[in-house]
Amino acid sequence: MAERSDRLVRESIQRRWAGAFSPAGHIDWVLLVSALLLTIVGFVMVGGATANDPAVVEGSGNVYVERQVIAFLLGLAAGAVTTLFDYRNFRAWSVVAYGVALVLLVAVLIPGIGAEVNGAQAWFRIGPLQFQPAEFAKIAIILVLAAHFHEYREEALGMRALVEALAFALFPMLLILLQPDFGTFIVFAVIVAGVLLMAGVHLRYMLALVAGSIAACVAALQLGIVKEYQLDRLTAFLDPENIDALGAGYNVVQAQIAVGSGRFFGQGLGSGSQTLSGFVPESQTDFIFTVVGEQTGFVGSMLVLILFGLLLWRSLRIAALSRDMFGTLIAAGVISVFAFQMFINVGMAIGIMPVTGLPLPFISYGGTSLITSWVLVGLLENVHMRRYTT
Questions:
Q1: Cα 104 from Cα 231, distance rounded (Å)
Q2: How many Å apart are CA 330 and CA 279, to the nearest integer?
Q3: Which of 20, 71, 269, 315 is surrounded by the most beta carbons within 10 Å?
Q4: Most confidently modeled range among 129-133, 283-287, 314-318, 352-356
Q5: 42-68 pLDDT tens trace
Q6: Are β-strands 61-62 and 114-117 bridged in parallel, bridged antiparallel, or unpaired?
């Protein structure tokens, strides 16, 4: 009888320990809820930005919002699937994902296969749907760089490790530059920098890399890889009124007017004098934060920034608590994407950053971007959920 009692006690303790260290019991709810709230804000803002567009609004529905909801459901499902498999198994598949990404980036440049949108041949078009392979490539480059530096570990991060990592990044970045999509090109550069910093690459190598990047930018300008109109857009924020308030500086000037017109509490949802009148182009995508500022004012804008702050704080915490270097570097890559795109997009709207066409994660209209954002959240959750498992 005593032996049976002892066995039952041992089994009860084992079940408790198993539950305590079960991945399902360690979901980061703050991260998840922050991403959900940002996505809901995105639905409202996309609807508010297109409320007066008869080509988008059909009866009581909004085509853009409906597509965004579908993309969210797909992204949520993809993110959930991402959490089901131990992230450490992704090391073996990272090169495969990288290879698929390269094939897609090459294919999109082929006339008749890829579609040109806003001057960049960066999309696959299937009926009314569009897919941007560069978004998938962000996931692939994060995984392949994290796997690469995980293999080297901290004690062997010399020149060879750095050169190999840069070679991994070089091919997709060149293909993206050929589209041309300079904004996404910069995002990839930031991903590489974020992973290198977190991996512990020596400072002198980082300085050499910065110098090389500056030289490459100068060469791109001299060789005409970056077109004159793109350069005008990148530099217009420096002095938009004197450069060309009706040309290259138009977007920046109108965005600032829209954000300023929101004042403290905003003009109200669906009531934007600038955005709804069409003065701010691409207000549902590139300049979505102008809609936030105009319709919800300073209060709504700060709430959005607080949600992004929570998202980034939890991401940094996941990077710090990760069980291994691979998980830490995955988190570093994801943080680089979210933080940089948020900073650039908000900066574009208030006139302190160049116009690069980068979407605001979770909020800007765009199915591929939203799905990618939720897969990245899935990667973060995966790392966090398995920080106690071997």
A1: 27
A2: 40
A3: 315
A4: 314-318
A5: 999 998 888 777 767 766 678 889 999
A6: unpaired
The 10 Å Cβ neighbour count of residue 254 is 22
Can you read off the two tokens belonging to residue 99?
Answer: 């290879």
Instruction: Locate 140 and state its tokens.
Output: 């692939």
Q: Are 334 and 142 in contact (CB under 8 A)?
A: yes
pTM: 0.88
How far apart are the C-alpha atoms of 191 and 176, rounded to whole Å?
14
Q: Residue 14's pLDDT band (boundaries 50, 70, 90)?
A: very low
7-11, 147-151, 269-273, 291-295: range with highest mean pLDDT: 291-295
Provide the residue type at 359 as one letter. P
